[in-house]
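Retro notes (design track)

What went well: tokenization of the new backbones is finally stable.
What didn't: we kept losing track of which sequence belonged to which structure.
Fix going forward: every design gets posted as structure first, then sequence, in one message. First example under the new rule, 89 residues:
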């Protein structure tokens, strides 16, 4: 089964996560099929905290991929942020 989940990168005490599409049998930070975004939980100032390619998420969901629990929350947050950006302009 294909899952959309987080892969941790970054230094010790400075987490940074890539949002990846991967086979559920692979390791968390192992081989992935596609990288579709990132999440920076400690972003400050002008740094971007979250970026997800919604078209690719929709594509993989239509092909049977499952979202991890945390990615479900991040996906909702990303969609809300994109709606706010569209309404502001």
């Amino acid at each position: 089964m294909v899952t959309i989940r987080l892969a941790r990168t970054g230094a010790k005490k400075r987490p940074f996560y890539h949002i990846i599409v991967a086979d559920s049998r692979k390791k968390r930070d192992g081989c992935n099929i596609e990288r579709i975004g990132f999440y920076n939980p400690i972003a400050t100032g002008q740094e971007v905290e979250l970026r997800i390619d919604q078209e690719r998420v929709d594509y993989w969901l239509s092909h049977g991929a499952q979202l991890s629990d945390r990615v479900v929350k991040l996906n909702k947050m990303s969609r809300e942020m994109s709606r706010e950006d569209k309404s502001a302009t």
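Added context from the reviewer: The helical segments are 54-62, 69-88.
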